Amino acid sequence: MLDYDYDALREIGRIVALARDEMAKAVEPGMTTKELDAIGQRILEEEGAASAPITMYEFPGYTCISLNDVAAHGIPGEEVIQEGDIVNVDVSAVKDGYYADTGRTVIAGTAKSPQHERLVEVSLTSLEAGLGKVKAGVKVNQIGKAIYADARKNGFTVIRNLAGHGLGRTLHGEPETISNYYSREENQLLKAGQVIAVETFISTKDEVVYQSEEDGWTLFTPNKSLVSQFEHTVVVTEDGYEVLTGSFR
């Protein structure tokens, strides 16, 4: 095992999962994304943790809240969540020098179509498929291969310029990228004790996102394709993995 305090990692994993789930349960049409972010802020502060995006990058929000065709890094603000919106909450935080990162997607109120419900479900099954490849000695690119296969099997695709990553004592560490597709370059072997964040970005059509020139943060699809994300922080073990960020089911 690596030189980590795994109890400290479990603690920050518990905290970000708590914030994620409380925010997801609170999602409803008519509320602003800033009001949703305030729930995450409250939980992190009550638990003695600090927002990682603020700590590391001076992000203008305690959490990232991304709607519909925004794949990631949505800034909380006065935008009102509408009936049927696809809402992603991504929570990362630090406590006692250790980081964890997690996200989940829900639909506000009633879905606009069965495809939207299916998109959210497949972003979770794709995560589960990717995690199913995680254990010591496996190449990193086998995670993305499994994620992509599950997405394509179900009629969706993946965002290719967003990825999971290593973490632990920093929010982004080795491996730098865990893509949602097979990448020949990601051929390093997973090691027991390594901490990684595996996250899916499943799309209805577009395969890339672009950064907003207006705010310098928001990552959106060019053709209004919808995106759903799920993310877990896990510890690699000899025969699999330990999830640090709770459960989605």
UniProtKB/TrEMBL annotation:
Catalytic reactions of this protein: Release of N-terminal amino acids, preferentially methionine, from peptides and arylamides
Q: Identify the residues that the record assigns to the Peptidase M24 domain, covering every copy.
A: 8-238
Report the cofactor remark: Binds 2 divalent metal cations per subunit. Has a high-affinity and a low affinity metal-binding site. The true nature of the physiological cofactor is under debate. The enzyme is active with cobalt, zinc, manganese or divalent iron ions. Most likely, methionine aminopeptidases function as mononuclear Fe(2+)-metalloproteases under physiological conditions, and the catalytically relevant metal-binding site has been assigned to the histidine-containing high-affinity site.
Q: Which UniProt keywords apply?
A: Aminopeptidase, Hydrolase, Metal-binding, Protease
Question: What residues does a divalent metal cation 2 bind to?
Answer: 101, 165, 199, 231
- Keyword Protease set for record: yes
User: Which sites bind substrate?
Assistant: 73, 172
| Pfam families found in the cross-reference section | Peptidase_M24 (PF00557)
Give the EC number.
3.4.11.18
Tell me its cofactors: Co(2+); Zn(2+); Mn(2+); Fe(2+)
Q: What class of enzyme is it?
A: hydrolase
Q: Name one GO molecular function term.
A: initiator methionyl aminopeptidase activity
Where, by residue number, does a divalent metal cation 1 bind?
Answer: 90, 101, 231
Keyword Cell membrane in annotation: no
Query: What does the function comment of this entry state?
Result: Removes the N-terminal methionine from nascent proteins. The N-terminal methionine is often cleaved when the second residue in the primary sequence is small and uncharged (Met-Ala-, Cys, Gly, Pro, Ser, Thr, or Val). Requires deformylation of the N(alpha)-formylated initiator methionine before it can be hydrolyzed.
Annotated family = Belongs to the peptidase M24A family. Methionine aminopeptidase type 1 subfamily.
The name under which this protein is listed is Methionine aminopeptidase
| Native organism | Exiguobacterium marinum
Name of the coding gene: map
